[in-house]
Amino acid sequence: MKIGLMLGANAGPEATLDGLVDFARKAEAKGFPSLWMAHIFSHDAMTALAVVGRETKTIELGTAVVSVYRQHPMAMAQQALSTQAAAGGRFTLGIGLAHKIVVESMFGLSYDKPARYMREYLEVLNPLLAGEGAQFQGEIFKAAGAIDVPDAKKPVPLLIAALGPVMLGLAGREADGTATWMTGVKTIEGHIAPTMGKAAQEAGKPTPRIAAGFPICLTNKPDEARAFIGETLTVYGQLPSYRAMLDREGLDGPADIALVGDEAALDAEIARLKSCGVTDFIASILGPDEGDFDRTVEYLASKQ
Fold this sequence. Notes:
The protein is of the alpha/beta class.
């Protein structure tokens, strides 16, 4: 199991573009295999990772994740291929549906038939990511054309944020795996991995990646850290899709899913992630005290 770091999910030392580049260089020097950037309401994730890609050499760069409702699949493919070129073939595109409240209340778009939306989106996106032309006419999307980015390594690897069986089937058949958040070990082992793995096997594809994001904090004050994480991430316990995953896990909220404690406690938690089928642990570092971030980074670096 690889251990990567999350960018852009919370305010931190990487909050500016210069900060992102500096953080990425340091993470690469410490041996981290990957950096994953959230696309929320700050820097455009792919634009930022394109800049980071020009300033690093070996580290994988991925989005976790970009909403498919933000742009047409041809535009998404064009940006992904351009980011892949900038990163020298080290970019992985993670996409997802986002949430009804975001799509309807903030974007002003319809969230009707989200699974169909994603299914048709992939009909256009996948051939373009492979450097082929797209010819498709569906209920939602129409596309006819190709994108020529000759210096982009193809196909661009693709992960789909998936929690329910329909989306997990798409992630297994049409992508290289999934990126999860607010999804616990029991749910990954008993639901995510087998459902997606079965779809991939039936499609003749290799075992898919499971890039699982978890809050984490190295601390000797676990109760304080959990309270801080719970307060900071309250909204994620209220969004229906994440709420369903927390309920499946039998947890009250985001604080309960976090990896919190001293080195021995975190060693045990990381071992559980590996044993349940996680291929990529995306560490979202979050703690109440000054120094929590840096100490947690150093701890994770020691596990590379």
